[in-house]
Specification:
The complex is a heterodimer. Chain A has helices at 23-40, 59-74, and strands at residues 87-97, 104-107, 112-113, 121-122, 127-136, 146-152, 155-163, 171-180, 185-192, 201-210. Chain A is of the alpha+beta class. The longest helix of chain A has 18 residues, at 23-40. By secondary structure, chain B is α+β, with helices and mostly antiparallel strands. In chain B, strands 2, 3, 4, 6, 7 and 9 form a six-stranded antiparallel sheet that branches. Chain B has a four-stranded antiparallel sheet with strand order 1-10-5-8, with no helix packed on it. The longest helix of chain B has 18 residues, at 22-39. The two termini of chain B are 46 Å apart. The chains are: A alpha+beta, B alpha+beta. At the A-B interface, helix 1, helix 2, strand 1 and strand 4 of A face helix 1, helix 2, strand 1, strand 5 and strand 10 of B.
């Protein structure tokens, strides 16, 4: 009867020439080896997702359950593709309204706003802003671009989407990693460099990745 | 040739009458080697920058891959890249968070009048049903933030009450009081420390009520953006 896994085995240490190994000295380690292997389960490093349960039959099955949990948490088809962050979406919508000629405005909630305070949101936890998408609803005039910049209160970030002169109604995007702290006020600044009204501004979405506490 | 890890070994049982053969010594040794090979060297030493692949070389490598995945999911820096109090895979033990947000678009609030902020939108309404959203899964709430864009009046009773409501009832620990004479961002924490009955369940109606104290000397300062943290619970 093996001691493991309910206890940790302790084998006798034989003194040189003083004790001759008995059958128990051979059998006891054998039983412990069998018990270790049973507790580990077969092929524990070979991972395949198994539905988690309260009582894994072996360490190997528990490792498979972890893989399954990772798969479910991240929504991937294979556990080893689960090395991805928890993502959130933040959004605004200009409802097709335009930015006045040579003006700087802010994308609001169904509007284009003159005051940032009417369009900003407060982020309640630490995170990274990593990608910005803008949908325009008409063509930008030929004589200047339209830029959308993620602003942290009054500070412009390096996450900027640019709609070029003559840019047709389409989806424009940019990626960067901008650290956001809990309580930061985010707003999307829209700057029209054309002497005419800008392209219409539709939905604007921002990908947020959770980072720590 | 060891049985493990392909199958569980069944090793000999010898009696005092048996002669100990070479196999009696060699077979257990091969199994011990196979166990150690499958576990890998120092499996308890976790490296949270392991390259993740479909076929870990050993259990130890797999445990490091899991640590790496947990760290990435939660957005925690590795100990290798950033040595700080916020780095290390074990700090990934935190809830999945999301947010509800909106902007009251610099509205001022008259004393004693209930208003409700539009979630995921701009402005406020005096009709709660118009500003309720239905919670799609169980959640706990924490960290309500509100941006006062101009200062509150300075009378002794000039408090602005901002309350998180579940099914048209204020959460007992979900009320933020913005005091007289103040401006800037305000935060209410530990909403999830409320009694268990305050947890929001799937199907509950969530709203944000704003009210200037009925004893106030006049309207509140202007209120702009707001945000609320939700935490997934099962």
């Amino acid at each position: 009867m093996a001691t493991f896994p309910n206890g940790l085995p302790v084998f006798p240490v034989h003194a040189k020439k003083l004790e001759y190994p008995k059958s128990a000295d051979r059998n006891d380690p054998n039983r412990e080896i069998e018990a270790i292997c049973t507790e580990l389960g077969v092929n524990p490093k070979t991972i395949s997702a198994v539905a988690p349960g309260a009582s894994p039959t072996s360490v190997a099955q528990y490792l498979d359950m972890i893989a399954s949990a990772i798969q479910t948490m991240t929504g991937v088809s294979n556990w080893y593709n689960g090395d991805v962050p928890m993502r959130k979406t933040l959004g605004w919508n200009g409802l097709g309204n335009t930015v006045a000629a040579s003006a700087t405005r802010f994308v609001g909630f169904g509007s284009i706003e003159s005051a940032a305070s009417r369009a900003l949101v407060i982020i309640p936890f630490k995170c990274n802003a990593v990608s910005l998408y803008v949908r325009t609803t008409s063509t930008q005039p030929f004589d200047g671009s339209l830029t959308f910049t993620l602003r942290i209160f009054t500070t412009l970030s390096s996450l900027v989407v640019s709609v070029p002169p003559n840019g047709v109604n389409n989806v424009y995007s940019a990626t960067d990693t901008i650290a956001i702290n809990a309580g930061d006020r985010l707003v999307i600044e829209a700057k029209n460099l054309s002497a005419s009204a800008s392209a219409g501004v539709g939905g604007v979405s921002l990908q947020i990745n959770q980072t720590g506490t | 040739m060891a049985s493990y890890p392909g199958s569980i070994p069944s090793l000999a049982t010898v009696s005092s009458a048996n002669t100990i053969t070479a196999a009696h010594v060699n077979d257990p040794n091969r199994e011990i080697e196979a166990i150690c090979t499958e576990l890998g060297a120092r499996p308890s030493q976790i490296l949270d920058t392991a390259s993740v692949s479909s076929s870990p070389a050993d259990v130890g490598k797999y445990l490091s891959m899991v640590a790496t995945i947990l760290r990435t999911i939660a957005g925690i820096p590795s100990l290798v890249s950033v040595v700080s109090q916020n780095s290390g895979w074990w700090r990934a033990a935190q809830p999945s968070r999301f947010f509800v947000w909106g902007n009251m678009q610099n509205t001022t609030f008259a004393p004693g009048v209930d208003n409700y902020a539009y979630p995921f939108g701009g402005g406020v309404t005096t009709t709660e049903a118009d500003a309720q959203i239905v919670v799609p899964f169980d959640m706990l709430l924490d960290n309500l933030w509100v941006d006062m864009t101009t200062a509150m009046p300075t009378g002794a009773s000039d408090f602005l009450h901002v309350a998180i409501r579940r099914n048209a009832t204020d959460l007992s620990l979900g009320i933020l009081f913005i005091p007289p004479g103040t401006v800037g961002t305000f935060r209410k924490q530990q909403i999830d420390f409320a009694p268990s009955g305050d947890k929001l369940a799937a199907g509950d109606k969530l709203a944000l009520r704003i009210k200037m104290d009925s004893g106030g000397s006049g309207s509140s300062g202007q209120v702009g953006g707001w945000g609320l943290e939700g935490r997934q619970v099962g």
